[in-house]
Design goal:
Number of helices: 10
Strand content: 15-25%
Number of domains: 2
Largest sheet: 10 strands, mixed
Shape: globular
Length: about 450
């Protein structure tokens, strides 16, 4: 009897071993550039055109010109998708159902090892999120083309799901906020012509700057005007647990501005500008990347109110003049003449680091919303389709021309106002202009695979 049990046990082991050898485990299935027709659990989805967010099902893995969308790719029953070195691995079982999404990567592939500005301009229509602001209705079905900036710029517009404009501006980048490389993630606002008719690349920090980035607070925040540096998770789109918060300006006279209505509130005297942005922040940028930054003439004149984006842009750059019965007013005159009544408030400040303009933020949303005033940009459909919306109170560059002690900011709800006190604290996202000589050496513009640059 004991001998039969032993023989039976041996027989079971032999059969089990044979099954293992003949039928390998279904987990760790490796799918390397094979047709989806060879399996029943994988669907391959290819984006029609960059920035559209529209996908078509196909039978083949893309070979070039596409990048995996890790946010959309998923399996319904817990299997894990990995994409490394051009091959797909699904860790799980064939009983699952998996969807692999690939985004169109035309610019990342086409422009590799070429001048970035020149190649992007030549091929911008291959990316549906880039709009050429020539003021002409040359886009099929595009709303409000008449509200373009008409400055021949190329700007990204749309939500985070369609705008792929991440740049790694440092030797290492990471999507982990605890990793030092996280501070090197930037995004491209657009390409802008300089006085030499060359296009410079304007980039903005992808997330808010921290106290480590900008240095100790130049001015302590207050409970009434300021922020405690802790993001409201209900609105915040970034990844930090705390951020740096700074006054736009504060001088001995700042608190008296509303009383005597004088124009001592100037960007050139702001410690945020001179000490934090163009001091600590600029000084910490790696030398290789600092060489790509150009000294730019930032428009720092006052701004009156929150209008639609084209009216905002025209006032910012002085192509339209407004009047107000106040010392802090715009001057009547021709373009490029002094815009404010107070001659002592400089309108141009030359520096390496600045902040985004109101128009940068407003042009970041879809063109169908460009007729909306900045104070109404808190509408869900507008901010959800604006890649520049971060969900924090955030300083931007222009000061108010209606009140000497106030400047423009974007609120955490997404609206842009002119009446925040300059001695109140808000978050900061530094902006830089990069040389027209910059080349793109790699990347696809996604957060996980940002563009890589060199001169």
């Amino acid at each position: 009897m004991k001998r039969k049990i032993i023989l039976s046990t041996i027989l079971i082991l032999i059969i089990t071993l044979s099954l293992v050898l003949v039928y390998p485990k279904k987990e760790n299935q490796i799918l390397k550039n094979q047709s989806s027709k060879k399996n029943n659990f994988l669907s391959i989805m290819i984006e029609e055109q960059a920035g559209t967010g529209k996908y078509n099902k196909t039978d083949e893995f893309p070979q070039t010109g596409y990048v995996l969308n890790s946010n959309l790719s998923k399996c319904l029953n817990g299997s894990k998708i990995k994409y490394e070195n051009g091959s797909i691995s699904v860790i799980g079982t064939k009983a699952d159902r998996c969807y692999v999404y690939f985004d169109f990567d035309a610019l990342g592939s086409l422009c590799r090892n070429q001048n970035m500005a020149e190649c992007f301009i030549k091929n911008y229509q291959k990316d549906g999120s880039i709009i050429y602001h020539d003021g002409l209705p040359d886009y099929d079905g595009m709303a409000n083309a008449n509200l373009e900036a008409s400055d021949l710029s190329y700007r990204y517009s749309g939500g985070n799901d369609v705008v792929h404009n991440y740049v790694c501006f440092g030797s290492k980048c990471s999507i982990d906020p605890e990793n030092p490389g996280y501070k090197n993630l930037y995004r491209i606002i657009g390409l802008f012509k300089n006085d030499s008719d060359e296009y410079e690349i304007k980039i903005i920090k992808a997330d808010a700057a921290t106290k480590e980035d900008l240095g100790d607070e130049t001015y302590p925040g207050s409970a009434y005007y300021g922020s405690d540096g802790t993001p409201n998770k209900q609105y915040y789109k970034g990844k930090l647990t705390s951020y740096g918060y700074y006054y736009w300006n504060s001088t001995d006279n700042a608190h008296l501005l509303s009383e005597n209505n004088t124009n001592v509130n100037m960007w050139k005297e702001s410690n945020l500008n001179t000490k934090n942005l163009n001091g600590k922040y600029y000084g910490a940028i790696e030398a290789t990347y600092k060489a790509m930054i150009v000294e730019h003439e930032w428009q720092v004149g006052g701004y009156l109110s929150s209008e639609n984006v084209k009216a905002t842009y025209d006032v910012e750059l002085g192509t339209v003049k407004l009047t107000k019965e106040s010392k802090n007013c715009y001057d009547q005159g021709k373009p490029n003449e002094v815009r404010q009544c107070d001659q002592n408030n400089d309108l141009i400040y030359k520096a390496h680091v600045g902040l985004m303009y109101v128009s940068d933020y407003m042009y970041g949303t879809l063109s169908e919303y460009w007729t909306t005033k900045g104070k109404n940009y808190s509408q869900e459909e507008i901010k959800d389709n604006n890649w520049l919306y971060l969900g924090l109170n955030e300083w931007i560059l222009p000061r108010s021309s209606a009140f000497g002690d106030r400047a423009i900011y974007v609120g955490y709800l997404g609206d842009s106002y002119y009446d925040n006190y300059v001695y109140g604290a808000s978050s900061i996202r530094p902006c830089l202009y990069l040389s027209s000589d910059v080349k793109i050496t790699g990347g696809s513009g996604t957060e996980t695979n940002p563009y890589r640059l060199e001169v």
